[in-house]
Every structure is written in structure tokens, then in C-alpha cells.
Amino acid sequence: MERPQIFYEVHSNLPREGPGDNESTDRAFKSLKNLPVKPRILDIGCGPGMQTIELAKLSSGQIEALDIHQPFLDQLNLSAKKEGLSDRIRTAKGDMFNLKYEKESFDLVWCEGAIFVIGFLKGLTEWRPLLAKMGILSFPSNLG
Question: I need a labelling partner for 125 at 20 to 30 A (CA). Which of 60, 97, 114, 135 fits?
């Protein structure tokens, strides 16, 4: 579901699409228990990817960063290259309302501050099947 153009105009050239900072992402990620050493992570609604970069630094995993707006993904690709993380971050243009991933594809589904777009209950219901056994859904709000 594409957002109105004004949304992208207001949000263009921001390092992050919501409240919070890297310390908040760090705190939320470190609170997770029993992740594999190299988790398969899906970052839904990644925006320009400030938290995606931080997740890559915090984990040894592979990250699929999904957003509907290509300029955000382009910005994330540039950041990943600059940080030397391009080999672990793959961007994908897609809609959180219509995910095209196999069941049990991820150890962690991360959606930092964007689940409101689809709705909390709908997000839980539709994204849960994407998790491997003992996988984790994480929706940090980064509000403090």
C-alpha cells in the first residue's frame, strides 16, 4: 500500500523514519534471548535503514531490509556500502501487507516503529508464520 507522496516529501533525507536512536535499537536487540549466532533477520519497513545498519553491527546475521519506497532502499544501500556491510544487508522493495517470503524463513522479524502501518494484531498474525522454530517477532517503539 503506497503512501501519499507528501509522506515521502516530509520524510526525505532523514536518517530515521521514527523516534529513537542507535542506543534504543541496541537496548532492544540485546534484550532478545536465544537467537542463533548468525540470525536471519527481516527488517520490515526499514526506511533509510539507520536501525538496519545498527542490527548488522550488533549481529553476525544476514538482514533482508524491506520497504515500499525505493529512495529509502537506495539510501540504505549507500549506507551499507559505506559501513562495509553490503555483504550482510540485502534490500527488497515490497509491501508489508503482501510479503512474499517462505514460511519459517527468519529467526527474527524486526519492525522498528512501523507496525502501526499494518496494525499490531494484523502484523502479529501475518508475520508470525515467517519465523523459524523459536523465532522472535520484535516491534521496538524506541520511545524511551
Answer: 60
> Is there a contact between 59 and 41 (Cβ–Cβ < 8 Å)?
yes
Q: Averaged in consecutive runs of 10 residues, what is the pLDDT profile of the chain (144 residues)?
A: 58 61 91 96 95 96 96 96 98 96 98 89 96 94 54
- DSSP state for residue 15 in the 8-state scheme: S
At residue 100's C-alpha, the angle toward residues 3 and 82, to 5°, is 70
Distance CA 101, CA 87 (A): 20
Question: How far apart (Å, rounded) are the C-alpha atoms in residues 55 and 62?
Answer: 10
Grid cell 531490509 — which residue? 65
Kindly provide the residue ranges of all beta strands, DSSP E only, lying in the chain, ordered along the sequence.
40-44, 62-67, 89-93, 106-110, 131-138
Q: C-alpha cell of 32?
A: 532478545
CA 72 vs. chain centroid, Å, equals 12
Residues 122, 134, 140, 60: is their CA dihedral positive or negative? negative
Indicate the pTM of the whole model: 0.87
Answer yes or no: CATH 3.40.50.150 is held by domain 37-138: yes
